[in-house]
Amino acid sequence: MSQRNISLGSSITATSNGPVWESASGDFAFGFKEITDEAFLLAVWFNKIPEKTVVWWANSGNLVQSGSKVQVTADGRLVFTDPDDRQTSIAVPAGNNVSYAAMLDTGNFVLASENGVNLWQSFDQPTDTFLPVQQFIKDSRLLARFSADNYTNGRFKFILQEDGNLVIYTTEYPLDSVTSWRTSYWSTDTVGSGYQLMFNQSGFIYLIAQNKTILKPISSDPSSTENFYHRAVLDFDGVFRHYVYPKAGGTSSGGWQEAWSVSTSIPSNICTAITADVGRGACGFNSLCQLGDDQRPKCQCPHGYSFLDPNNEMSDCKQDFESQSCIKNSQNKDNLFDFYEMKSTDWPLSDFEQFGSVSEDWCRDICFGDCFCAVAIFRDGTCWKKKLPLSNGRIDPSTGGKALIKYRLNNDTSPPGVENSSPKPKDSDDSTLIVAGAVLLFSSVLLNCLFLIYSCLKKRKSKVLQPQSKILQPLATAPGMNIQRFTYKEIEEATNGFEEEIGKGAFATVYKGSIQFENKSLVAVKKLDKVVEADKEFKNEVNAIGRTNHKNLVQLLGFCNEGPHQLLVYEFMCNGSLADFLFRNSRPRWHQRMQIAFGTARGLCYMHEECSTQIIHCDIKPQNILLDDFFTAKIGDFGLAKLLKTDQTRTITNIRGTKGYVAPEWFKSVPITVKVDVYSFGVLLLELISCRKNFEQEAEDGYIVLTDWAFDCCKNGNFEVLVEDDEEAKNDLVRVKRFIMTAIWCIQDDPSMRPTMKVVTQMLEGAFEVPTPPEPTSFITESSYNLYTSCH
């Protein structure tokens, strides 16, 4: 690999647009990056992309002034000098054999000997980022930064421990040490086995044992480092994310944006992942964490509280009112304090008393009468009293119940019952009254004027920003469900009388509307026809998706079941269905198609194996895979879904699904299992690979069945035929082959021969070698079956 050596004695100075030391390709640079005016970070960053994303920094992340200098000294040290000529050694290699420094194309800054041996390298001193080919061995660690723009130490640490576990911890902030109260919320469950975390040039991150066998896949992205930049980061919010970025940029026609996109997030929901006896949790004390639409945690203060540091949403929340007095007085507490209700909200482990088999009113009264009770949680007949400071706060549908947050009804911060007893002269009283009257009169006129101006501006803004519909407000949550109930009138107004139709099915029509939860967002309203089949579809859909919470499943926000009106309110997917995206004139990029395959597989895996109630979708096809703003795949339309009981693995039901995607066992009057979805996914995967429909006319008098054609190609080793005229896919033929063989395994006629969706996901990610699949027929030889089971 070519490199640009930096000779001993060389230096650079911190100035705006000042000099840097680049790698040979220019992909990376080392130097002073300006963070704010005249404030610089000594760092390594991606140099060719607009964001100039930092991957390593020195000086513990502290910013330095303009005029600071870094130098490779004559004796081979890397030294920082501030404007007052005070020196700090950043790197002191063992011995005096350093011949030069270099910024490598891997993102590694090194001090090397004459024969090219790295005597010191930034890769051995990682900050919050892990790059391809970087070594991450036992006791290696990443430490999150404080915030997006503050590179000093934050509250989270990622470690490959000596016991072989790969774990993310909260730290004893502001120290970076892990204490006995640490929160270990993600582990490989391979105690004593983990030896090294690998990040290869194919974009695959996995943990290996000392004998090089793969213990656990961590993340996989089909884009190689040849065409994409990769980085894995322990972000300041405590989530370990794998990012990719196209080196050549994107095209708007293909939908691919020139920006970092997230391939994997661990944990998927940090708000609910952290629960510790001591410590703040994902956000600060008294704060609440909620997963946003972008799948990133958002911190917020409850009613009556505000951030200690208004510029840092991860800071603690302070009480903005005087707490309830513990001194008994004649005043009625009901007139001083009230409760603010927040559904699906809790601060676990902050309670000091718990009561069972009680009513909500009883729970309110017991907290009202306790001056130490800041919050009461009521859920399923149980009441918890919480005291300050509150920790591990979260808002999540899985939490259920409600939080009753005590707050003072007015902003008076003086203790109740305390009055100013100092006597006032009469003249002083009269003048005070006159001044007070004048102030009140002036204030009243001013407030009326301001209110009039505000009303006009608000009305004008509303007309400009929301011409299409009235914003829909959520009503009470449906009992036992994680969704909201709406009236028909509200939905009718929110869709402007069902004005804009965006889709139509056998028993329903979908309209575009607008809804208000925490912020304004578009929604898709599914209006079902009043027929027996539609009634069944409505109940199936509410029961199935109302119990789910996964980034690869379309979110059901609410419903209306009012007389003859049955409607479902979904999040709006601006990029439509996979069918529209995949079978258009221009072929979608290979990278996008593979990401859609991964997302669909993960969504099905969640439904089959991770959801509290196992769900068989029964109608997986491109029309039911929807794409959001970032082309993330989300499974939708659960109208035909079947829910299995806890002790149930199969069910008997009438034929469901769509021609071309229906598994053979549907026609044999036998119980069906989740393997019917695996079959449908196999067909869908072949469509994603080839951008062809499963059954289409090939010539004037002939048709092609995609599954048969794909097996013939696989049998003859002609994998490239399925991706003809797709240069991006043909350049990734090893992965194409793996995807095709995985699809053939999925469409085996015998359900027992099909892998589970968990195994399918591992196959796609390359966690193990996919064996050659047998021909999909009703007859499977014993040797073929043994060949398949060897990969489980």
Automatic annotation (TrEMBL):
Signal peptide: none annotated. It holds the Pfam family B_lectin. It is a single-pass type I membrane protein. ATP binds at residue 527. Its main location: membrane. It is found in: Membrane. The chain crosses the membrane at residues 433-457. Its EC number is 2.7.11.1. The keyword Transport does not apply. It comes from the Eukaryota. Residues 410-429 are annotated as: Disordered. InterPro entries: Bulb-type_lectin_dom (IPR001480), Bulb-type_lectin_dom_sf (IPR036426), G-type_lectin_kinases/EP1-like (IPR051343), Kinase-like_dom_sf (IPR011009), Prot_kinase_dom (IPR000719), Protein_kinase_ATP_BS (IPR017441), Ser/Thr_kinase_AS (IPR008271), SRK-like_kinase (IPR024171). Residues 1-124 form the Bulb-type lectin domain. Residues 496-768 form the Protein kinase domain. Keywords: ATP-binding, Disulfide bond, EGF-like domain, Glycoprotein, Kinase, Lectin, Membrane, Nucleotide-binding, Receptor, Serine/threonine-protein kinase, Signal, Transferase, Transmembrane, Transmembrane helix. GO terms for cellular component: membrane. It catalyses: L-seryl-[protein] + ATP = O-phospho-L-seryl-[protein] + ADP + H(+); L-threonyl-[protein] + ATP = O-phospho-L-threonyl-[protein] + ADP + H(+). SMART domains: B_lectin (SM00108), S_TKc (SM00220). GO terms for molecular function: ATP binding; carbohydrate binding; protein serine/threonine kinase activity. Belongs to the protein kinase superfamily. Ser/Thr protein kinase family. PANTHER family: G-TYPE LECTIN S-RECEPTOR-LIKE SERINE/THREONINE-PROTEIN KINASE SD2-5, G-TYPE LECTIN S-RECEPTOR-LIKE SERINE_THREONINE-PROTEIN KINASE LECRK1. This is Receptor-like serine/threonine-protein kinase. It comes from Dillenia turbinata.
